[in-house]
Amino acid sequence: MSVIDVKVKNNLEQYIKQCLMATGVIIAVIASFDIVEQTVIIATLGATTFIVFAMSHSYASAPRRIYGGYAIGILIGLVVYYLEMFLLMIDPRGFEGINLFLGGLAVGASIFLMVFTNTEHPPAAGLSIGLLFNPWTIETIIVIIFAIVFLNSAKYLLRNWLIDLHGPAIQDEPGGDQDQEIVKAENKPDRDDNNS
What global pTM score does this model have? Predict the structure, then answer.
């Protein structure tokens, strides 16, 4: 098993170009929206940048997943945040520590709604808990929306120069590690289909 992705050998220049594109785009996002102090936003947008530029043709990088996932992450984050404010207003001492439960609820509810609506985008689930635990304003939400529009626009404009950089699936053959082959799932028929 190799530590280096087998595609690097033939695509090293492309790997470097795409990583530089991602670097430039995230710098532009951070500089344009002045979010240096919003660590949760930077973390989620950094993860989305990785998906957009390293896995540009993957399921998770489709605009539906990014926009839908962030919409759900923001919605759940806000609902859970205001639920915590409401509970603490009712009884500040009785609901001490409730944010731990609500943090789990935020992530769980985000996951459920994302898979239910076919808008799975993992960084956006992290945003839902980030909005609970970190201070934010309405400007924060607006910045997130503009930032994901910016990232998707950059992906669209650069689409002709992007390839998937993530490694291929490796399947162990009966002969052992020396007989590993690259499996392209979209071109390989399912073995169960051949047996029926």
Answer: 0.79
